[in-house]
Amino acid sequence: MIKRLWARLGKSSLQPTDPVALENMPEHVAIIMDGNGRWAKDRGLPRMAGHHSGMKAVKRITMEADRLGVKYLTLYAFSTENWKRPKAEVDFLMKLPQQFLEIELDELIANNVQVRMMGHKEDLPSFTLSAVEEAIVKTANNTGLVLNFALNYGSRKEMLEAIKSIAADVQQERLTLDDINENVMADRLLTSGMPDPDLLIRTSGELRLSNFMMWQLAYSELWFTDVYWPEFSEKHFQEAIMEYQRRARRYGGL
Ligand code: FPP
Known about the structure:
By secondary structure, the chain is α/β, with parallel strands linked by helices. The chain has a single domain, classed as Decaprenyl diphosphate synthase-like (Undecaprenyl pyrophosphate synthetase), CATH 3.40.1180.10. The chain has eight helices and six strands. Strand 3 (114-118), helix 5 and strand 4 form a beta-alpha-beta unit. Helix 3 packs parallel to helix 4 (87-110) and helix 4 (87-110) packs parallel to helix 5. It is globular. The termini are far apart. Mean pLDDT is 94; it is low at 4-9. It binds farnesyl diphosphate. Farnesyl diphosphate is lined by residues 33-38, 51, 54-55, 58, 77, 82, 93, 96-97, 100, 149, 204, 229.
């Protein structure tokens, strides 16, 4: 009951025994969830089994982020480049949001989590989009953790669309060149109204951004692990946060 109340207030339910400090908690954590396929291959399983296990990791880390008092969790679930994968895999990945929300939405609601999505909606199958949109509507008034799914997301496309919308406003004299600044750009990105990620986690040993939040990650702390996403645990998440808490962020200053 107290935990629920605490969650309603958007507070952390961190215990004194937790290794993570309540102070200097990252407000926004973004994750590139990588290594599902390799995790499955190592076990002689089909790639889809890796994605299915990855879905369970999404639940685990969402709950842990909520418990720790992280305010925004952005998860890279499908990129604009992932359409290049075999059709069977794309079809499977497109079914995961619906499957996840069918199982977890009630618990997300009970925990005051607000679901959001950032990505290019136009190419998503209608069953994927409607499942996500239903969750968005049902959780719109929740005030706890914001769980932001990056679905059919690509940073270059996002920036191009922002630039085109600014150019159109200049062309129609709603904006002058002098009006254009970082805030004008940020307001037209899919993260408008959200703080930039404080911490980016990428699993599976790959050291790339892969077209993910390239504007928003300008001053984020980056943390990489060799652990494949399906086995990424609460403990690994805490390790990333503890490392973040040890770093000094200078934003180009001294
Ligand atoms: C990258 O691993 C992972 C993806 C492209 C998909 C990520 C999706 C999930 C973790 C599940 C999403 C769940 C919900 C609820 C939306 P990879 O397949 O590239 O792995 P590999 O590099 O080892 O082949």
